[in-house]
Amino acid sequence: MTRGPAVRGRVTAVSSNGEYAFTKPNRDSITLLAGLGVEGDVHAGVTVRHRSRVAQDPTQPNLRQVHLIHEELFAEVGAAGFEVTPGDLGENITTLGIDLLGLPVGAVLRIGGSAVLEVTGLRNPCLQIDNFRDGLLKQVVGRDETGNIVRKAGIMSVVRDGGVVRPGDPIEVELPAGPHRPLERV
């Protein structure tokens, strides 16, 4: 890892759900477990837990243990008439002040006193988003000026070091040694 100027942000909300559901209720805190994900969350585990991926191959590694979304997205979709609040899109950690989508694969997020996440890729939003708010999918997935797909519904990560995460906790970003690989869907 390289340590350039520290990029800092903070946690604005934490959410988890022990049952399969699109949204996740906000919590006072969540506990991250190394190599597993969020304690008590339906998506925690060494192998993949997302239903569509389990159907494809239940033995594949879980690169989607913890889902993060930048709170700035809520203002962006709000300007288009969509009310979205922390946990609504199924994220575990809502952040502020970090360009999550601009991070490279392998970036490390140090959160609070001991939790460490490694970024694995982009969330690939699905039609469930339109079931939540009709038309929202077009706000979080689109195309850039050259026709490339742009996904804005957050990033996925794995837990390197466990710990308790609470709203207000600081987040420090460490970038991997270059060259950096841009995030792709996982």
TrEMBL record:
A GO MF label: pyridoxal phosphate binding
Domain MOSC, residue spans: 24-174
Cited PROSITE patterns: MOSC
InterPro entries xrefs: MoCF_Sase_C, MOSC_domain, Pyrv_Knase-like_insert_dom_sf
Protein name according to UniProt: MOSC domain-containing protein
Organism: Streptomyces actinomycinicus
